[in-house]
Amino acid sequence: MSDDTSGIREGEVATSLPAAFDAGLHFIGRIHTPWTRRADCPRNARESDALCTIEVSPAFAEGLADIEGCSHLWVLYWMDKARRDLVRQRPRHYDETHGTFALRSPARPNPIALSCVELVAVDGNRLTVRGLDCLDGTPLLDLKPYFASTDARPEAVVAWHAARRG
Amino acid sequence: MSDDTSGIREGEVATSLPAAFDAGLHFIGRIHTPWTRRADCPRNARESDALCTIEVSPAFAEGLADIEGCSHLWVLYWMDKARRDLVRQRPRHYDETHGTFALRSPARPNPIALSCVELVAVDGNRLTVRGLDCLDGTPLLDLKPYFASTDARPEAVVAWHAARRG
């Protein structure tokens, strides 16, 4: 199920995944970034101002109509290098474990990543964006407009993370 | 590929989907809401204060550890009633078409919905939340903590939408 060779760290817990899948995904494009090894990726998107390119497959390119008027987008992509069975895990650089659903780690039952990006330019089926931190060649799943009215929650708090930094 | 019986509206464009899927998803729980017909669902989550329940399957329940300290969560779910081949579409109540990736419509190549919810209570493998607008019984794909530092963009603009309301 996984090509993650790091094994399980102390305190981590794996579950048994179902034998079959319930639904299927189409890869609709690829993300091009400067990072070809996981160790080189920024720890989160705010750590890098690098411009990245999202290339949408020709079959889906017409779906980009009107996207140039979106200042920010949600990019959903597939973290295909991550193991999927960890329910409790300890990310790199962390001393303690947390439940998978309280983390943004790539290791999760459905490794769908979610990043908010700033849309810099549109050229046919290629978007130039700022705000990604994934490996070069990562498969693209979806693009959505960012609506501040429903998506922006500046007051949101993650207690375990706030305690860690405090 | 679809049980959407509404067909294609004037100006909408469908593409040819690939014959095979590239990756598979596990449904990790179900979402319980007051709405059993699409016509009854709120048009967006801000239109309803209804409390909804997210039930995580026992195999994944340990992944909820520490989630109670998250004020807001991202809920990713599967819109399994939507057709997947539309690249240009005209949502209900709209006069004009837009590219699929400039819309939050459920009809998209990978019908993964994304909603920010307020976490109200945690009881074992059941979360009470506010801010969903989906059908009762919708399959759950993922839960993620909302980090204001990377996810909140109050300044974001969607030009076609702003022009429509202006």
UniProtKB/TrEMBL annotation, chains A, B:
- The answer to whether keyword S-adenosyl-L-methionine applies is yes
| Record flagged with keyword S-adenosyl-L-methionine | yes
Give the organism the record lists. Chelatococcus albus
Q: Which residues form a coiled coil?
A: none
Which intervals hold domain TsaA-like?
25-155
Which keywords are on file for this protein?
Answer: S-adenosyl-L-methionine
Signal peptide location:
none
Identify the SUPFAM superfamilies for this entry: YaeB-like (SSF118196)
- What's the family? Belongs to the tRNA methyltransferase O family.
Q: Which InterPro entries match?
A: TrmO-like_N, YaeB-like, YaeB-like_sf, YaeB_N_sf
Protein name (Swiss-Prot/TrEMBL): tRNA (N6-threonylcarbamoyladenosine(37)-N6)-methyltransferase TrmO
Superkingdom to which the source organism belongs: Bacteria
Write the gene name: tsaA
Q: Which Pfam families match?
A: TrmO_N
